[in-house]
Amino acid sequence: MSPDPDDANAPRTATAPDGADMAARAAAEPEMITQEERRQRRRDGERRIDRRSLLRPGDGPMVIFEKVTKKYGTDTYALRDVSVSIDAGEFVFLVGPSGSGKSTFIRMLTREVAATSGRVTVGGRDLSKLRRSKIPQLRRGIGCVFQDYKLLPGRTVYENVAYALMVTGDDQRSIRRKVPEILSLVGLADKGDRHPNELSGGEQQRVSIARAFVNHPRLLIADEPTGNLDPETSIDIMQLLYRIHRTGTTVVMATHDRELVDKMQMRVIALEDGRIVRDQRQARYARVETPIGGVQ
Predict the structure, then answer these.
(1) Does 181 score more than 50 pLDDT?
(2) Angle at which helices 231-246 and 201-213 cross, to 10°
(3) Which of 44, 59, 118, 296 could form a disulfide with 67 if both were Cys (CB 3.0 to 4.6 A apart)?
(4) Residue 12 binned pLDDT confidence (cut-offs 50, 70, 90)
(5) Helix or strand (DSSP H, E) at 275
(6) Share of the chain above pLDDT 90, in %
């Protein structure tokens, strides 16, 4: 996973839309999943894909951490006794300084890292009981967006997105239908034949999001997705992630971007020294202290 950037807390000059404005903009966009597309996905075997991904359907919690501790060596703790639940369909910001445990938290969701003690449950699956051979199936139900994009440099935009479908067993007919649809949804309909080095940073991140969402995962993890982008492009990427969230996808996003978090006013889970120090809904990046008397 990408390390936390040291300068991510630098002031931003662009003005980000607030949560209400972002919702209005998203509502004005075409729905990312139409009724006809839902019917087509069922015909293509949506339930079969869910089985291969191991994530169980349902409206209960998507993520549960129960007294989770991760220890490296004899005295280095990445997480300490963390207990938290994230419901299906939530949008959650994971915030905190470098070294606070955000990356370890994210990596545990895909079983890249196993807990030293405690239990992590994702999509109804207890990851402590998951056999190593089943980990790829778990990850097929989870979309991942990274700060450094992790695109295949020798493949075109179309081929990068198609690869995510190939590994889950989609046939060529399905791939030819789905890839243009998702590229259109992320605003890259005319860039399918380009290679990553021919794209801007924002365009590369849109390819990364298209690849992560083309299988319509129930959980999407974004690890500092705006860390390498300018403020204006960061806003565009945030609007795209918000639209994905509106389709019912659970989004967990680790970030240092104070302005975007403050404008979105979603649930914020703050980590420090491996512990959860704050868990608030409709929250800002940092806790807002109210002076005595209630006057700010």
Answers:
(1) yes
(2) 10
(3) 118
(4) very low
(5) strand 275-280
(6) 70
The C-alpha angle 48, 52, 55, rounded to 5 degrees, equals 100
CA 254 to chain centre: 8
Rg (CA), the chain: 19
Find where tokens 């994009």 sit.
149
Per-residue pLDDT of 85-111, as tens digits, reads 999 999 999 999 999 999 999 999 999
CA distance linking residue 143 with residue 57, whole number of Å: 16
- Residue 279: which residues within 8 A CB-CB, separation 6 or more? 84, 267, 268, 269, 270
Is 164 within 8 Å of 211 (Cβ atoms)? yes
Top-confidence residue, 7 or 176: 176
